[in-house]
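To the structural biology subgroup,

Please find below the input and predicted structure for acylphosphatase, which we are adding to the shared reference set this quarter. The sequence is reproduced verbatim from the submission form. If anyone notices a discrepancy with their own records, reply to this email rather than editing the shared folder directly, so we keep one authoritative version.
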Amino acid sequence: MNRYSIVIDGKVQGVGFRYFTQITALTLNLTGFCENLMNGNVKIEVQGLEEDIHSFISKIKTGNNFCRVDNIDLINIPLINDEHKYKIKY
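Predicted structure (tokenized):
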């Protein structure tokens, strides 16, 4: 199990990107959250098996048909043991 903090730069707000990440995370049995940042980026924390996280990152790089991902910053962070789902923070 691993957990990553990911900051996505690009056209990722107002285009359904957070919902796209939630659906993608749920299909891969990942936990965590995503939230919009004040600078127009999206922050994601995602936790699960390494190969599932790599699949998640690959899918969010492509995104939905409305977003554009320009850059992804990825940092390994400590696990959260009692987390059971992936959610959108408002």
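Summary notes: The first helix runs from residue 17 to 27. The domain at 2-79 is CATH 3.30.70.100 (Alpha-Beta Plaits).

Regards,
Lab coordination
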